[in-house]
Amino acid sequence: MKSSIKRLFAVGLCTITLAVGTFSCQKDRLDPVPTLLYPQEVVFDTPARVLLQVNSLYSYVKSGAFLGGRYQIYGDIRANDFLNLRNNGVTGLAVWNHLSLTEQSQNDVVNTWVAGYLAINQINLFLAGMDANASKFVPPIFPPNPTSPVNFATVTAVQYKAEARFLRALTYYSLLQLYARPYIDGNGSKPGLPLRLKAETDDTNNDLARSTVAEVYAQILDDLSFAEQNLPLVYTVSATNLTPNPTLNTTRAHRNTAIALKTRVYLTMGRYEDVIREANKIVPATGPFQASTGVPNALNASITAVFAAPQETSESILSFPFSAQNPPGTQNQLAFYYRPTPTGNGEYSLNSGAGGILMNPGFLTNDVRRTSLITQSGSTSYLNKYPNGAPYLDKAPAIRYAEVMLSLAEARFRTVGPADPQALALLNAVRVRSTSAAATYAAFASTTDAVNAVLLERRIEFLGEGIRNIDIMRLNAPIPGKGTVSAVNPTDVLYVWPIPAPELAANRLMVRN
Fold first, then answer.
1. Stated pTM of the model
2. Can you give 49-116 as a three-state secondary structure string?
3. What's the domain range around 378?
4. In a domain, 26, yes or no
5. Residue 233 lies in a domain
6. Whole-number Å distance between alpha carbons of 2 and 23
7. pLDDT tens digit string along 261-294?
8. Which of 121, 390, 399, 415 has a Cα-to-Cα distance from 339 of 20 to 30 A?
9. Is 388 a member of any domain?
10. Do 340 and 321 reside in the same domain of the chain?
11. Is there a single domain that holds both residue 467 and residue 376?
């Protein structure tokens, strides 16, 4: 698992920080006891300390090298909608051109893997600690839940474990999309990832063979089922003020977050009936489309409002926040990559050539996603979804309600047929929201036409949010070429990222892609 055994041993020691951030321990300070860390023996002694650990789990997952920025960027620049302008190896050049990605590629192949498995191990440490300290979670230090006559251990502790398992599921799912073959290729029988579910503080369990893709998905779904059953329906302002808390309902996992991720997982696996079953829990049969239970997640009336500060509309099911004290980190920021100078660094422009989304006739000239979420600098087009410059505090999007709607539409078209009225209504709701009634799809001649319309809508709607690679890989479709970069076919060795060299060196049971 480890790129460095000593480094991840440090992670086991660095269980919690007073100021929630990313990685707080330095490898050259392993021997003295860091002054800003609680000793392991006391980190489960009070509700506040346990909550700090939960917040720390989110910080690991939203690392700028992972779901705090780079992962979303890699998910888009692999395909053909963006052009590299800076020729900078640090900011995704190898991901964009495919050719220079190797087992030793530190800035992408190695760092993404390390960030993901650091998060996984921190989650496993937390879950093990919760179980080992369960006897502490009783009054008076851990008071009864104010809204229920039961104690911390049977309500809050289980909720925190559900949040941890949700984050583990999200992390494993995200890694699968880069380092393993698509589920459709062999029905999940191909090598997946080392499935690490134990807390590790040394190198004892370094050697672990890859589970199959299907086995990793089974664990993801098991974690999500537990999360759905035990996450809160909604976060409120306080125990006595039951007004929904928009910040927490956007930035922490709740029941609908687990359901939404399950729809993505099942869609990726091609299990369309399961997509329908899960999506039906939070998407009504007819418009207006808003969840009837839990957080009232809904399709916002304005796509621009979704990305305007504070980026906490009911459409944002999960986003990762940042602050001046906890930024995404240098050269990880979404606006840095996609915005032109001086707001960003103009690392990537939108592809205005053949095959790029700007040239697609389905991306209408009056589409708000074109007129408002794309900006011009001279003759060059840039994505404008992330408007905030330094210190780059735009939330990193993870899941939106529009995605659940389009996933349900695709699943229904594939199972019911191209004339399905609900699927058509869902697709049109997302499309017309940003265009006009004149853009409404009336009907489709075939299932292929209907599905292609959904795929195009997903490509437009989630531009710059990291969904494009997921959609390409789950269908085992070629990664389109752009400019001088050739397409990558599913049979090409470049289609899936290599397993990083540090993992191959540390794990004797690991096999290459």
1. 0.93
2. HHHHHHHHHHHHHCCCCCCCCHHHHHHHHCCCCEEECCCCHHHCHHHHHCCCCCCCCHHHHHHHHHHH
3. 334-383
4. yes
5. yes
6. 15
7. 999 999 999 999 999 999 999 999 999 999 999 9
8. 399
9. no
10. no
11. no
